[in-house]
């Protein structure tokens, strides 16, 4: 019987903003005893990304040449994911969605790397907007995984997450993901806080492992996500496997 090996569902290559070619990433991750998964940015709005339907065709053709899970990371606030043909997306083993920007109630988008919140938007009001976007994401976006679920606007990232996220916020997110059947990423790059992970687990949400690696040192590094899973009591069977668990949505 073959021993179970974790899957790094979320890592980047030179097709977007990573430093490794696809083959180099596969070799590096396999050398760590991890099954590789590639999920480059497919977005109009990320500076280094796959930026068109035609480029997405070429990207997937390149993925198919390597023994890795074939993924892509799509931005919630971006339109490209809405324009890609279903038959093209079906060639991916898994799809990842990210909140790299949120739609504001008065119109426009707040990008999560903007250095300041809009005038008049307090942190608690921002969190209400953020959670509302996450709930819409879960209903509208045809993905298998929510990447880095606790990534928030840049000015707020230094705040203690248990203070920024209320238990009501966490419950709403967990319920939305559970209803949609979307996995919660245990991210090595943006680690979620334990209270939220326990909440999601109590609602029956599935989890995925992701290095969100961009460099040779980062890809395949899943020790911290796996340690958090163990603390919470998430079993290997509860971890998302792209070849087993991806769904047509």
Keywords:
single chain; 249 residues; alpha/beta; TIM Barrel; seven-stranded parallel beta sheet; two-stranded antiparallel ribbon; 10 helices; 16% strand
Topology readout:
Blueprint: E1 7-8, H1 22-31, E2 35-42, H2 53-63, E3 69-75, H3 80-83, H4 86-89, E4 94-98, E5 101-103, E6 109-111, H5 123-140, E7 145-146, H6 161-164, H7 167-180, E8 183-187, H8 194-202, E9 207-210, H9 223-232, H10 242-245
Name the CATH architecture. Answer: Alpha-Beta Barrel
The biggest beta sheet reads: 7 strands, parallel
Level-1 CATH class name: Alpha Beta
Question: Would you list the SSEs in sequence order as H and E?
Answer: EHEHEHHEEEHEHHEHEHH
In short:
With 249 residues, the chain is of the alpha/beta class.
Structural commentary:
This protein is an alpha/beta fold. It has helices spanning 22-31, 53-63, 80-83, 86-89, 123-140, 161-164, 167-180, 194-202, 223-232, 242-245; strands at residues 7-8, 35-42, 69-75, 94-98, 101-103, 109-111, 145-146, 183-187, 207-210. Helix content is 35%, strand content 16%. The strands form 2 sheets. A 7-stranded parallel β-sheet has the order 1-2-3-4-7-8-9. Strand 1 (7-8), helix 1 (22-31) and strand 2 form a beta-alpha-beta unit. The longest helix has 18 residues, at 123-140. The radius of gyration is 17 Å and the shape is globular.
């Amino acid at each position: 019987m073959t021993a179970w090996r974790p899957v790094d569902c979320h890592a980047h290559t030179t097709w977007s903003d990573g430093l490794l070619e696809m083959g180099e990433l596969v070799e590096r991750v396999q050398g760590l005893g991890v099954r590789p998964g590639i999920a480059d940015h497919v977005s109009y709005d990320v500076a280094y990304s796959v930026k068109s339907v035609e480029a997405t065709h070429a990207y997937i053709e390149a993925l198919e040449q390597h023994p890795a899970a074939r993924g892509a990371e799509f931005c919630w606030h971006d339109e490209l994911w809405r324009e890609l043909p279903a038959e093209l997306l079906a060639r991916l083993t898994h799809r990842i969605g990210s909140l790299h920007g949120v739609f504001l109630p008065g119109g426009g988008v707040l990008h999560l790397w903007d250095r300041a919140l809009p005038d008049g938007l307090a942190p608690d009001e921002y969190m209400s907007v953020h959670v509302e976007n996450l709930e819409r994401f879960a209903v509208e976006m045809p993905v298998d995984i929510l990447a880095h679920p606790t990534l928030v606007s840049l000015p707020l990232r230094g705040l203690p997450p248990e203070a920024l996220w209320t238990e009501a916020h966490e419950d709403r997110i967990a319920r939305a993901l559970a209803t949609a059947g979307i996995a919660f990423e245990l991210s090595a790059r943006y680690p979620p806080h334990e209270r939220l992970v326990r909440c999601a687990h109590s609602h029956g949400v599935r989890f995925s492992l992701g290095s969100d690696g961009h460099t040779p040192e980062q890809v395949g590094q899943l020790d911290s996500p796996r340690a958090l899973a163990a603390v919470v009591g998430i079993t290997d069977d509860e971890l998302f496997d792209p070849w087993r668990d991806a769904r047509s949505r």
